[in-house]
Amino acid sequence: MSDCIFCKIIAKQIPSEFIYEDDKCVAFKDINPKAKTHLLLVPRKHIASVAHMDNEDLALMGHLIYTAKLLGEKNNLPHYNLQFNVGKGAGQEVFHVHMHLMSSAS
Ligand code: 5GP
Ligand code: ZN
Predict the structure, then answer these.
(1) Using one digit for the tens of pLDDT, what is the confidence trace for 57-69?
(2) 13-70, pLDDT tens digit by residue?
(3) How far apart are CA 80 and CA 101, in angstroms?
(4) Any ligand 1 atom below 6 A from CB of 35
(5) Strands 81-83 and 18-21, bridge-based pairing
(6) Could you confirm whether 52 is annotated as catalytic?
(7) Domain 5-103 carries which CATH code?
(8) Could you give the CA distance from residue 76 to residue 47 in angstroms, rounded to a whole number?
(9) DSSP code, position 86
(10) Ligand 1, from 7, 40, 86: best to mutate by most atoms within 8 Å of Cβ?
(11) Burial level of 10, CB count in 10 A (0-12/13-18/19+)?
(12) With a 6 A CB cut-off, is 19 part of the ligand 1 pocket?
């Protein structure tokens, strides 16, 4: 998706430091953090939102949650929230599906 900011970040057309990456997803710090630790976990595949997921995306979305667990361990986070905003009314601003990992710990 040429006009998608997260596709551009993933393609490194916009400089951004990945704190984690593999063949399926990347993770980077939110530019406008709403918690002490605020990471975004983003699949490389462009899916507009959870509402646009297909059956074939189940493993990918599971991988995203499992990656959050690993990042929680790696960063010694004792607790955190995982959040998807789905739709404009719920506050979704970027229409490339992503999971927020937020923690009051750092
Ligand atoms: P949403 O509201 O769509 O669930 O979350 C989008 C998030 O992406 C927001 O928390 C916003 O601060 C973050 N964000 C938007 N543009 C950029 C960017 O260019 N770089 C980074 N690191 N975060 C961004
Ligand atoms: Zn995208």
Answers:
(1) 999 999 999 999 9
(2) 998 999 999 999 999 999 999 999 999 999 999 999 999 999 999 999 999 999 999 9
(3) 7
(4) no
(5) unpaired
(6) no
(7) 3.30.428.10
(8) 30
(9) -
(10) 40
(11) buried
(12) no
Assigned token pair, 15: 């400089």
**SS3 call for 21:** strand
Tokens at residue 76, please? 């010694």
Closest CA to 40 of 15, 16, 60, 58: 16
Domain ranges in the chain are 5-103
Tokens of 21: 């990456």
Strand-pair category, 99-103 with 37-43: antiparallel
| Encoded amino acid at 69, one letter | K
